[in-house]
Amino acid sequence: MNIRNASLRDLAIFISNYLADNQIETILTGGACVSIYTRNKYLSLDLDFVLVSDTRHEQLKVLLKDIGFHQGGRHFRHRETRFLIEFLPPPASVGEEPIRRAAEIKKGTKTLKLLSPTDCVKDRLAAFYHWDDRQSLEQALMVARHNHVDEKDIERWSKAEGKQPQFRFFLKRLKMGIVA
Asked: What does the pLDDT look like over 94-148, one tens digit per residue?
């Protein structure tokens, strides 16, 4: 793969499949999902992969080094791309709730597992709910406006998180089409 010219989406597919070929399953989360679901109206520069099973960090380090990525702090970097890679421990979750089923994007014979649009909205809302992160609220709105999301499931989850007033604020903004 030509890493220098790879889009975030293509790099995520490449990394995910490379790791899967080496028996490491991942789910893409975070801002990279926002980028994918908004067709880069929001552009994240990092790919956050949650490891589906326990994987030794040394194993990741060796595998990624074989394709030119080197660890710098908590991220892996490659000299030919501005995108950073980070690995998070299992389980994949949004707030306190585990992800039940990952979405999939296919490109030829390759598959990328990632948060569904609904779980992506929940992931962004978790940062808004718990840290009053307004940028994450805007990202949640962007994803919800560009994709079909299950508002009832987001409402149920928001209630479980104890954040009904914040959910109503999100829903009001969503229905009004208010942009940042």
From this structure: 988 999 999 999 999 999 999 999 999 999 999 999 999 999 999 999 999 999 9
Which residues have CB under 8 Å from 119's CB, separation 6+?
A: 94, 99, 103
- Within 10 angstroms of residue 48's Cβ, the number of other Cβ atoms is 21
**Pick from 172, 43, 51: nearest CA to 60:** 51
Q: Which long-range contacts does 77-80 make (Cβ < 8 Å, 24+ apart)?
A: 78/3, 80/3, 80/4
Q: Which residues are within 8 A (CB) of 95 and not within 5 positions of it... i.e. 6 or more apart?
A: 122, 126, 129, 130, 157, 160, 161
Residue with tokens 């995108």: 83
- Tokens 């992931």 — which residue? 123
The number of beta carbons lying within 10 Å of the beta carbon of residue 11 is 19
pTM higher than 0.85, yes or no?
yes
Please report the DSSP string for 20-36 in residue order: HHTT--EEEETHHHHHH
Per-residue pLDDT reduced to its tens digit, 147-164:
999 999 999 999 999 999
Q: To which residue do tokens 């990624």 refer?
A: 64
